[in-house]
Amino acid sequence: MTISLNSPIAPDLEKLTNYLKQVNESGWYTNFGPLHQQLTERLEEYLGVENLLLVSNGTLALQVAYKTLGIKSAITSPFSFVATTSSLLWQGIDTQFCDIDNYSYNLSVSKVEEALNQTPDVNGVVATHVYGNPCDVEGFDKLASKHNIKVVYDAAHAFGIKVDGKSVLNFGDASILSFHATKVFHTVEGGAIVFKRKADYEKAKQLINFAIVNGEITDVGINAKLNEYQCAVGLTILDDIDHILSHRAELFSLYQDNLTGLVDLPQWHSLANTNGAYLPICLNSTEELAAVAAELSESGIQYRPYFKPSLDSVFPQVRHGNLEVSRDISRRVLCLPLHFNLTREDVLKVTSTVKKGL
Ligand SMILES: Cc1ncc(COP(=O)(O)O)c(C=O)c1O
Questions:
Q1: Ligand 1 atom at shortest distance from the alpha carbon of 80
Q2: 108-138, pLDDT tens digit by residue?
Q3: pLDDT of residue 234
Q4: Of residues 229, 192, 162, 191, the one with CA closest to residue 17
Q5: Domain covering 13-238 in this structure, CATH number
Q6: Residue 71, CB half-sphere, CA atoms under 13 Å: how many?
Q7: Please, how many CA atoms are within 13 Å of residue 246, restricted to the half-sphere of its CB?
Q8: Which segments of the chain belong to CATH 3.90.1150.10?
Q9: What's the Cα-to-Cα distance from 71 to each of 58, 91, 221, 282, rounded to whole Å?
Q10: Per-residue pLDDT tens for 222-255?
């Protein structure tokens, strides 16, 4: 039997139907309706944040965040999902890559600092909490004050992650989440931006509704609103979120127990919890990766080289210096199955299959 890499959470149909009935009865299908309001409030409370703006997907969340904060020239990581960089290029933002840290696989604060010293025009950094593992947020905080830059975190993987008890979404000028069906919490498609400042939240809320304010067009806006049917999915799933996150985190730690010392796992932020969003392993060589991949395929276990390739090979127009860590890690990394419908037995089957390939 196949063990799938991912498996989206199916919302409880009875609960979902109740929410959908409310939408049909109110006749308010989109444009900041009552379910949008409820989901916003419940997410703010659950995540421990303020100024959370729901949007139609994580990619638009990034684009709207850049526009709201006035980012014109940015540094980002080549070791992320393509949208982290493509969103910058789509906005016409002058973009450069810096390398990642060898242990966490997150954008390196020291490499960014070197680049900032050479390119004073840069006014933004976009850093991904890769696999949900928090970046060096304190390091980026210091850099932001010293160089007067905006920091946007791509927190698409970091739902429910805290650093020393404080939501990771509270760092930087803005953080974005993705609520795509494959994420730990989802609205089929969807996302959110968490702003540090209320004024930015207010501005972004106008931008995602064509920048129309009291009937007047006030700026170049876009349509990035999350509709009521999708909010219904979110509200339904949110009821079970503790259970979902704890099951995933338990499987994550079972993987760790069985693989630590045999393969490299990204070094997790020492003050952060885990949400079991992904299970990346880094093999010693591309040959070892091929051997492990062959064993997994033979046993019907899905895997994904993620993130591959290092994005500098996809976007030659993006300037960069030395990116040897990103290039190296992206050739040796594999994500193993991890989702809510996975069992402990599945994890043990996956880990014993990985061991056969080592
Ligand atoms: C790191 C990262 N950033 C951005 C996105 C884009 O989110 P969305 O698919 O909701 O547009 C994703 C989605 O998979 C992601 O993994």
A1: 1
A2: 999 999 999 999 999 999 999 999 999 999 9
A3: 98
A4: 229
A5: 3.40.640.10
A6: 32
A7: 4
A8: 241-357
A9: 17, 9, 16, 34
A10: 999 999 999 999 999 999 999 999 999 999 999 9
Angle at which helix 34-47 crosses helix 13-26, to 10 degrees, equals 130
Length of the chain: 358
Beta carbons of 168 and 153 less than 8 angstroms apart:
yes
CA-183 nearest atom, ligand 1: 14
> Which of 55, 81, 330 is the best mutation target for the ligand 1 pocket, counting ligand atoms within 8 Å of the beta carbon and taking the most?
81
Q: Which residue has the least CA distance to atom 8 on ligand 1?
A: 58
Model pLDDT for residues 137-169, shown as the tens digit of each residue: 999 999 999 999 999 999 999 999 999 999 999
pLDDT tens digit sequence for 322-350: 999 999 999 999 999 999 999 999 999 99
Q: Which architecture characterizes domain 241-357 according to CATH?
A: Alpha-Beta Complex (3.90)
CATH 3.40.640.10 maps onto the chain at 13-238
The two structure tokens encoding residue 313? 């090979």
Closest CA to 272 of 157, 178, 109, 176: 157
pLDDT at position 1, please? 84
Return the percentage of the chain with pLDDT > 70, whole number. Answer: 100
